[in-house]
Amino acid sequence: MHRAKTLVTAISAGIPSQKFASWLIKNSPAVLQCSQCRAYNVPAAAEPFLNGSSGQYVEDMYNAWLADPSSVHASWDAFFRNSQSGGQGYISPPSLATPSRNEVPLGALIPSLGGSALAGQGINEKIIDDHLAVQAIIRSYQIRGHHIANLDPLGINSADLDDQTPQELIYKNYNFDENDMDRVFKLPSTTFIGGGEKSLPLREILRRLELSYCRHIGVEFMFINSLEQCNWIRQRLESPGCMDLGPDQKRLILARLTRATGFESFLARKWSSEKRFGLEGCEMLIPAMKTVIDKSTELGVESIVMGMPHRGRLNVLANVCRKPLYQLFTQFAGLEAADDGSGDVKYHLGTYIERLNRVTNKNIRLAVVANPSHLETVDPVVEGKTRAEQFYRGDGEGKKVMSMLLHGDAAFAGQGVVFETMHLSELPDYTTHGTVHIVVNNQIGFTTDPRFSRSSPYCTDVARVVNAPIFHVNGDDPESVIHVCKIAAEWRATFHKDVVIDLVCYRRYGHNELDEPMFTQPLMYRKIRSTKPSLDKYAEQLLSEGVVTESEVQDVKAKYDKICEEALERARQETHIKYKDWIDSPWSGFFEGKDPLKVGKTGIVEDTLVHIGKRFSSPPPNAAEFKIHKGIERILRSRMEMVDNRTVDWALGEAMAFGSLLKEGIHVRLSGQDVERGTFSHRHHVLHHQAVDKATYRPLCNLYPDQAPYTVCNSSLSEYGVLGFELGYSMTNPNALVIWEAQFGDFANTAQCIIDQLLASGQSKWVRQTGLVMLLPHGMEGQGPEHSSARLERFLQMSSDDPDYFPPETEDFAVRQLHDINWIIANCTTPANMFHLLRRQIALPFRKPLVIMTPKSLLRHPEARSSFDDMVEGTEFRRIIPEEGPASQNPDGVKKLLFCSGKVYFDLVKATRDLGLENKIAVSRVEQLTPFPFDLVKQECNKYPNAEIAWAQEEHKNQGAWTYVKPRFETTLSGQRDVIYVGRPVAASTATGSKAQHLKELKNLLDDATRL
């Protein structure tokens, strides 16, 4: 107290406060000695507290110290304690170089040394340097320890493609030698290796760090920008005994590893010449997955959606999902399918299982999504399916439904869709609240050495972009694998973020069982042949520990082999493959009790049209406070005028389709690039407050108090990933309208894997229906090659209707065509037809993908309008809109009948009007191209018996619909009449980049079309 009063006196005497600390340190021995406490200087920590302040601060701190010494900074604690005991109060700090980025600043070090280190002795520079060095070593192990972890079961490769030991991990580089190894150092708060101990000898510190970070587990996590998350991981890796397992847990691992190994052995014995993409060399994948499932189930998860490549799929289906073994063995029998479709190879199929998890005694749903050989294509599909399940369950935090993705090392590093999918993980409308990724790291890509297949140190480096922790683990250390799997499941449940397990292993038999890997990897496979399987190694370990006996090991093997033999005997009694047993998400109750050829009504009452139209055309309810853009005000007024006039444009027609479905309880989700506003500024489904950030109003979410949810969300600038996501979303619930829109139609090129392998052929291969809608802006507007064509010809080429077959003209002709086709391709010209087409997706008694070539200029074209009369009850989608002008009144006098599709219709009609040829030329629009409307085309051709028939299109001759419609016209006309082509000549590019050239080509097209 006397010391504090002396300081107060000094300041009150007029010493400038900003100079007080330096003055005090210089003059204290002669001026400020107190006769009662014999204290001299304040410590260096005084300077920031005294600058610009008063001595009252010191008095308050002194009083606080008297009450509780731990309530003040450690340096003040040492000062006050030394002062009271008659010791030296102030100690001059040593001169140190600027610390590196990995070192702990001196101010952070002092409290870790504690007051006792400062009491009664001077601290020299080496003591401080050595403590800083120990902290730097600990941090270096946490950051870089994974580089020297023993991860390769074969002992020949470095997982990071680098054999060098980072210099930060060599203790001698910190000026330590053997004499320092038994010195005791206080542990910082950034490590948990001490357990309950506060200090350890340097030798023990290094030993524990090696065990945590450099044995069979290597972890990358220190790049994560959250201290809480880093400490969470450190605690689970560094705490002494954290990996210890009890005898029961070890026996469970052995049993699971035995089943995984036994399954592959059984298949190899029974079907030695079959490709099965077995799991030999990475059998630990099965216990790993089951551990993630066990832990996640324990933490509340009820459903897990999984995606994986072909390697190990059969084993996962058998031993993770517990799919009946006889169904798996039936796939090897060469039987015909009992269901419609072409089927697929056995290691592409999915499944859906509900079963009891015996470890947690809780029910769990497991789904493995079917996927093609296009590696990683399934990733976004799984995420979309997971997101949908979470949505329908009301699981807004992802506590009940989660996703698990398996990857190969080469594919994880090489396939761009991995990056696209990763970048969806934190987006509000796409997150699944954390995915557990398991990389089956074969250390080889088919035959390509990883040193020639990736530029990154690890195959998993792409995961760093989303701050996902990455656990590298040696696949031949079962207990280490189980440990990281538990951590991964807990991480996902705690932080709801992605996590990666890099399971480093090898392939015992090459890319597949018939492949010869010695051609290209002789050294690796010589080592593999001398390497014991994981099961043998672990069994020997448990035998040596006395956990199991030899008879127990053999008994587990024999029991599982007997189970397989009994399942094979049952499989031999099957006569057909039932692909319905392989659906990854069955739509329970959707197909039952329905007439498969009866379509619901798509027209609606006018009152509903008016209500939706007015709500969609009105400003927010609190318009006086919610400031919208002036341009939006004009748009809303224009829409309201259309509603008053019983007319709709494209945006209004689309909104009425969505709104009417929402009224009927159908969830609508519109996703893609800039869909909220619309690429061409026509939609405006989200209104933004012009003065308040993030304040928005969504008209279609406020139509009815009990309506279904409407989700409209701008996506990341991804086609492959987001289209796959929406496909997965659509597969979960048939009673939802899920739509993906491209910014421009041909941007869908980069999502071709999803389109080819899943949309066009998914039902045929996997009996997997989807009603997903793709909106692809399409039309030659003079905007250059990449903003013109949605590549209509590619979609038509993949259509499965036979060009040479004219179906029977029955009453249910149209719906039967839809039932039998693989998908629907349309190019609408009226908002009313778009309205019906979208509603028909839900009205159908089945689900088919729908691809719509949407317009650009027609969004505002004055003639591209529809009346309410075309949308009310009793109306429906028109597959063809026939000529309805003057030519239709005198069909015998028509000289040319033009069929077309899309925007070019309006160009053709204008040209005929300008030339006064409305009575001579009839123009009919084919709105639905696939399935081809044979019956209506036939009617229209018969109506104009004297007319030359032509197909007109704005696309080049080798593009667009011509090559698709030509043979179908020939089938329709039965050789009695010809159909000619009108349009641009062939070209390599979809469009010219010159506006002048575009107009010239259009003029030539119209001249040819109107030439009689």
TrEMBL record:
<dbReference type="GO" id="GO:0006099">
    <property type="term" value="P:tricarboxylic acid cycle"/>
</dbReference>
<dbReference type="InterPro" id="IPR031717">
    <property type="entry name" value="ODO-1/KGD_C"/>
</dbReference>
<keyword id="KW-0479">Metal-binding</keyword>
<dbReference type="Pfam" id="PF00676">
    <property type="entry name" value="E1_dh"/>
</dbReference>
<keyword id="KW-0460">Magnesium</keyword>
<dbReference type="Pfam" id="PF16078">
    <property type="entry name" value="2-oxogl_dehyd_N"/>
</dbReference>
<protein>
    <recommendedName>
        <fullName>2-oxoglutarate dehydrogenase, mitochondrial</fullName>
        <ecNumber>1.2.4.2</ecNumber>
    </recommendedName>
</protein>
<dbReference type="InterPro" id="IPR042179">
    <property type="entry name" value="KGD_C_sf"/>
</dbReference>
<dbReference type="InterPro" id="IPR032106">
    <property type="entry name" value="2-oxogl_dehyd_N"/>
</dbReference>
<keyword id="KW-0496">Mitochondrion</keyword>
<dbReference type="Pfam" id="PF16870">
    <property type="entry name" value="OxoGdeHyase_C"/>
</dbReference>
<comment type="similarity">
    <text>Belongs to the alpha-ketoglutarate dehydrogenase family.</text>
</comment>
<dbReference type="Pfam" id="PF02779">
    <property type="entry name" value="Transket_pyr"/>
</dbReference>
<dbReference type="GO" id="GO:0004591">
    <property type="term" value="F:oxoglutarate dehydrogenase (succinyl-transferring) activity"/>
</dbReference>
<feature type="domain" description="Transketolase-like pyrimidine-binding">
    <location>
        <begin position="648"/>
        <end position="861"/>
    </location>
</feature>
<dbReference type="InterPro" id="IPR011603">
    <property type="entry name" value="2oxoglutarate_DH_E1"/>
</dbReference>
<keyword id="KW-0324">Glycolysis</keyword>
<dbReference type="GO" id="GO:0046872">
    <property type="term" value="F:metal ion binding"/>
</dbReference>
<dbReference type="GO" id="GO:0045252">
    <property type="term" value="C:oxoglutarate dehydrogenase complex"/>
</dbReference>
<dbReference type="InterPro" id="IPR001017">
    <property type="entry name" value="DH_E1"/>
</dbReference>
<dbReference type="GO" id="GO:0005739">
    <property type="term" value="C:mitochondrion"/>
</dbReference>
<dbReference type="InterPro" id="IPR029061">
    <property type="entry name" value="THDP-binding"/>
</dbReference>
<dbReference type="GO" id="GO:0006096">
    <property type="term" value="P:glycolytic process"/>
</dbReference>
<dbReference type="InterPro" id="IPR005475">
    <property type="entry name" value="Transketolase-like_Pyr-bd"/>
</dbReference>
<comment type="function">
    <text>The 2-oxoglutarate dehydrogenase complex catalyzes the overall conversion of 2-oxoglutarate to succinyl-CoA and CO(2). It contains multiple copies of three enzymatic components: 2-oxoglutarate dehydrogenase (E1), dihydrolipoamide succinyltransferase (E2) and lipoamide dehydrogenase (E3).</text>
</comment>
<keyword id="KW-0809">Transit peptide</keyword>
<dbReference type="GO" id="GO:0030976">
    <property type="term" value="F:thiamine pyrophosphate binding"/>
</dbReference>
<keyword id="KW-0560">Oxidoreductase</keyword>
<keyword id="KW-0786">Thiamine pyrophosphate</keyword>
